[in-house]
Amino acid sequence: MILMMILLALMGNTKEQSKIDFGTEKTNTWAVINDGVMGGRSLGKVNFENNSMHFKGSISLENNGGFSSLKSPFSTFNLSAQKRVEIRYRSSEIPMAITMEVSRAWYETYYRHALPSTEGEWKTLKFSLNDFQGQSVGRKTGTKLAKNELEQIIRLGFINEGKGPGDFDFEVDYLSFE
Question: pTM value?
Fold first, then answer.
């Protein structure tokens, strides 16, 4: 419920900053989507812990697999007044990426930004919304997130960035748009 209130605040947001604090968000509305939708065998699960959202699992390349993702519920996010993203996270093994979707169609371009492995240490990373790169069906499109698309974000998420098999462990404290 609290997450929905934050997501609704982002919908028409013109404030200087919006924050999703997973330490206070104890909700199960984020969905894990694995490559099993295409016959793959990767696994992922999410838990909400004392101060974070914890996403972990394993990536398998068997049966044309290779991804595990975690996605917010569909909504409307107006990020046109924001310029940067700040995320506090820790990860090990396989690097992850943050994603933003502008279409419900799985084959349409979505945008992502790599989050390098932190070797299990908590790190805070800031980057520009202009740095998000277009991706479609696992391939880079050569496009960037355009200013007019910042009003059209319908879903946020996380996905493994690496193309190889192995375990991943990714934990997020907060995600802030400034």
Answer: 0.87
